[in-house]
Amino acid sequence: MRAVSTSLVCLTILAGCGAPQPEQVVRLEADNPLRPIGPPPLGIDINLRSLPVPPTPARVRLGRWLFFDRRLSRDGTISCASCHQPAHAFSQTTPVATGVGGAAGTRKVPTIINLAIPNRWSSFKDAPVGAYFWDGRARTLEAQALEPVAGASEMGSSHGKMVSTLSRVSGYGRYFAEAFGDAKVTRERVAQAIADYERTRMSGNSAFDRWRHGRGTVSDAVRRGFDLFAGRKAGCAACHTPPLFTDGTFHNLGIGWNPDTRSFADEGRYAVTKDSMFEGDPGSFKTPTLREVTRHAPYMHDGSIQTLREVIEFYNRGGIANPDLDDRLRRRGPIGLTPSQINDLLAFLVSLEGTGWQDEGPLMFPQ
Ligand code: HEC
Ligand code: HEC
């Protein structure tokens, strides 16, 4: 995290906290310019311009500031990017999150890439329904964005406090006006701007995509790994469905099962819906994307598996037996992959490292 530019603060104070000087505005905007809404990277079928409410350059610019702005938290110490770290594909490398004042969370920080299309039931174009969080409890990115602001173990603030803090930052006024028509700060506008910034974080154009689209080659290990991944034996693609490498629904692999108490530390989807028939048994969690998966060990909703090799070995053993283990794992039992097949699967996962999402965040913020 970089510090908010102090010179901007001082200059603004010297100027009587009035309108920022023109040269300050030029520097601020050069650091976070308006960018056209571009096409998706190779291999990703997400056309932002065809969304029902397409992101605009002005909202994305505002959202980029807000996503990285620590003033959204109770004590000005934590931004969205403190946990969703750009260097780790907007995830992080600790098992569970730590929020404001060191408060411990209970789940691993998921990556924020390729979330623009709510890919759950996305064939119903008229009623696209998203499933955000490990348990899918938020239906839109807008609804999702406001939860951590008020979460005690995340940013520890309240929506009222967030709105009043941001309203006092006079420099934000012109950018709310640019994005929404007038300078008023509302929680809905903050949510929409952040969500639009998130929508632009796409990952594609990986070695895998270039190979599949006839624009490059990959090693034999990657080819064999992909055949295993998509074939019946390992059967990974049944849930990690290309091109996003998630089916957007919920499965129980047995992670977090305690055989002594015969219960899950975290019931996941079931705690939200209480509907094991259609929605997910106790212990089921949303299938995470595997794009950029090399960048944010440890793995699973509780960060309990340290490396990708150990994840594959976990599947190789058939998951963790429990009464609600997903049928695909239960029917198949241990997979029987050889050590060299495990290496091939690993090589394939590495080939999913792509581009389109990278961002270090702005250096300067409106004051
Ligand atoms: C203290 C760490 C922390 C902070 C700060 C934080 N998040 Fe998160 N975020 C998490 C964790 C942990 C989860 C998973 C929680 C769950 O599933 O219950 C999550 C989940 C998400 C998801 C869902 C991703 C998916 O694939 O379903 C999105 C989107 C997201 N956060 C955006 C944000 C935004 C926007 C902010 C800032 C307003 C933010 N987060 C602040 C830790 C954090
Ligand atoms: C039955 C559906 C299903 C199948 C089959 C499946 N996965 Fe998963 N995968 C999931 C779910 C669900 C999770 C998250 C589970 C949790 O956190 O409790 C996950 C997590 C992962 C993770 C960790 C990602 C992260 O960000 O933490 C990796 C890596 C992974 N799977 C790879 C594979 C590979 C390789 C295969 C084939 C050997 C495979 N998966 C087969 C559903 C599946």
The count of domains is 2
CATH architecture term of the largest domain:
Orthogonal Bundle
**Spatial order of strands in the largest sheet:** 1-4
What amount of the residues lies in strands?
A: under 5%
How can the largest sheet be summarized? Answer: 2 strands, antiparallel
Q: Which bin fits the share of residues in helices?
A: 25-40%
End-to-end gap:
18 Å
CATH superfamily of the largest domain: Cytochrome c-like domain
Shape field: globular
Low-confidence stretches: 1-16, 121-128
Q: Identify the bound ligands.
A: heme C
Summary, kept brief:
With 367 residues, the chain is mainly α.
Give an overview of the whole structure.
This protein is an all-alpha fold and 367 residues long. It has 2 domains: 2-199, Cytochrome Bc1 Complex, Chain D, domain 2, CATH 1.10.760; 207-350, Cytochrome c-like domain (Cytochrome Bc1 Complex, Chain D, domain 2). Helices cover 34% and strands 3% of the residues. It has helices spanning 6-14, 22-31, 57-68, 80-83, 141-150, 159-168, 173-180, 187-199, 207-212, 220-230, 269-273, 308-316, 327-332, 339-350; strands at 250-252, 257-258, 263-264, 284-286. 41% of the residues are buried. The structure holds heme C (2 copies). One heme C binds next to helix 12 and helix 13.
